[in-house]
Amino acid sequence: MKALDKVSRRSEATAVSFLLIAVFFWGTSFRATLIGTEHAPPMTFTALRAAPAALILLIAALVMRARLPGRALLPWTLFTGVIMVTIPLAGLAESVVRAGAANAAVLNNTAPFFVLILGYAVLGERASWLGVAGLIFGFGGVVVMVSSQLGVVENQADFVLGLVLALASAAAWGGGTLTVKWLLDRDPKLDLVGLTVGQYLVGSTLLVALAFALDSPSETDWSSRDLWAAVIWVAVGASVIAQLAFYSGLKRLPANKVAVWGFLAPVVAVLVEVARGEVPGPLVATGMGLAIIGVAVTTMAPMNTSRPA
User: What end-to-end distance do the CA atoms of the chain give, in Å?
Assistant: First the structure.
């Protein structure tokens, strides 16, 4: 029994390490997205982010001899490619531009609530009262953290659309997280690298098509170094490395425990601003503390994975 507990603790520590990597890149992607969308329309910037990520993942898969999704997994690859790549990436960029990074950060980080509710119904992952309390603390911390940054809205319709897109991104990501977890439960040997490659090939193809349909090439400053620096950061870091790290954590922990780590992304975003010389006020610092407590509480909370009656 002690040996099993030791293995379990080691597995959880490994999962936490992977999730910290994912959170770092996700948190820094807000600033990179703001910079990138100053030089290109949101959809074009998103396509520039997703297409190189798909290519890098494909090369990595070939080098690692990863198994690409077969015929049986193809429908799920298509589905998760749309809801975990196309919708979240497009929704993130559009919501940041239309509603502002602070507002987008709040709603993009409601994904753990979708995971909690759907996880109970679909996977039978029952969170304890301590886990639920951690979720509430975490989201409350995000709200407090960004509330001081909310400004006066000039274009109300555009603002509301941005909030809706951010919420849709969170719902899509939450549903995709549960789908991948379900696939892992069915087949623990599922090749996550191969699955991620398939998802990005599907998602990036749709995003490139949307960029061509909605944007004009003349709207993008192709010679901007800032644009390409932002593209490299979000494509390699926030897409390739973060996605693989997130899935590695998901393989070792329940979906609702993993999803709550998204609450730390805005904390990282604030720390980026601190590094740029903008020290947060007491309200932001309080929110950061609540978010960190929420993640810690939910991660340590016991889980009951039996199916609901």
Answer: 29
Biggest alpha carbon distance in the chain? 64
DSSP 173-231: HHHHHHHHHHHHHH-TT--HHHHHHHHHHHHHHHHHHHHHHH--GGGS-TT-HHHHHHH
Query: What's the CA gap between 165 and 124, in Å, rounded?
Result: 28
Whose structure tokens read 């599922």? Answer: 190
Q: How far is CA 182 from CA 8, 12, 118, 255, in A?
A: 20, 19, 12, 9
Q: What is the pLDDT of residues 3-36, one digit of tens each?
A: 545 557 777 889 889 999 999 998 888 889 889 9
Map tokens 């951690």 to a residue. Answer: 134
Helix ranges (H only) for the chain are: 2-36, 42-64, 74-81, 87-99, 101-108, 111-122, 129-147, 156-186, 192-214, 225-232, 242-250, 255-259, 265-275, 282-300
- Averaged over 164-178, what is the pLDDT? 88
What is the DSSP secondary structure assignment for residue 261, as one 8-state letter? G
Residue 44 has pLDDT above 60, yes or no: yes
Q: What is the mean pLDDT of the segment spanning 139-147?
A: 71
Rounded Cα distance between 183 and 201, Å, is: 19
Cα distances (angstroms) measured from residue 47 to each of 61, 76, 280 = 21, 22, 33
Contacts of 209 (CB under 8 A, 6+ apart): none
